[in-house]
């Protein structure tokens, strides 16, 4: 395909045609006046699925979830600088996850910017901290080529956030050019200069292969399991992973724990650590009197492959060099279900019930923060599934990412696991789930508090917090009523407080073909 110019085509139309030609066929939107010509182009040009969200953080999070499951970029449509600002939190998460997201951000016409109208802002300045690529299209003739470059940037491994700023006069002016797609940028080679050192390091139980990114696909985990069987090295993943393939028959990899004391204990035995798609472990926060670096003093750390490089090639090279190709992989999860718990809900009984409920090929979107720290052990023998974590730590990720995952994988059951405090940040996502009739079972862990911060008071040395401190971390007076809020958004819901109730509710939700919310109170 070559570039095509049409004197009667406006800039917005050339943008839509260029995006479709480049494989971008899904748009999560919350538009305003400056984007109306783009909205009109989406209306009369077939091929683009347009999904309306009620808040921009839902749109950006949905684009993140879409990329994780589809492996290709979706775009968002955001209104000027304030609209982009509303979406920054989940763009931060998308950037940390290595997700390809293309943000189309409306801008005033050039003649209007000089008037300093109320919505005028520094859009490029707002976009840069959460973007890898930022550009403003200044004329209709270059808009199509700018769009092709934006898609290429977003699809650069492992996935990047791109911001294309679209002035309204560029959108409405005729003379648009539909640009040909640009070739994808191949993954960089892994660091072959470190291969011999990595091979030497992986020997015995005091060595560790730490995995992240695309190393956590089923095929790559199989290679890692064979390397572990051949060398005796341990396997771990980062605490937060954009996508991990798990379940019975797959190589099971535990995560470096989130709590700093647990992480220090888990990592203490390892004298040699090879990084493959992962960063050297550090704490989420600084704590008085505790180290920020979580590995043992003097541990040798070798970076064989960064997350955007050829992780499969690095694992294959390790496999060849260690004689692991013919080994049966170690750490393969055996099909098993936890015993059925009874009584009131708590993190352990919830974990067991989830382990019993996960269906084949489900997608688990995990923003459980505190409640979910024990979920991995209870679910490792469940039917094969995919697990998506919040890699950036900015809360309000779970419900929007579930939307994108459901649209990218409509044939799979989506389970969104999130705390009540986290879910309130992007509550509007429920409305989009209902409008699109998405197959998502949502479990809200209603512990009536920012439970993680209760623990953090102790971790940072606040030994005896008073009632006002506790009050600032409590979600009561009044309690959040998730059943009423959910039904008000068009999503059927129920509240449960014991094991029998949660088991039955999970069966009902997973049997439904649309969204269903369960408020698990404990």
From TrEMBL:
Keywords: Thiamine pyrophosphate, Transferase. PROSITE patterns: TPP_ENZYMES. It holds the Pfam family TPP_enzyme_N. The keyword Transferase applies. Residues 382-519 form the Thiamine pyrophosphate enzyme TPP-binding domain. The keyword Transferase applies. It comes from the Bacteria. Residues 9-113 form the Thiamine pyrophosphate enzyme N-terminal TPP-binding domain. CDD domains: TPP_BFDC, TPP_PYR_POX_like. Belongs to the TPP enzyme family. This is Acetolactate synthase large subunit.
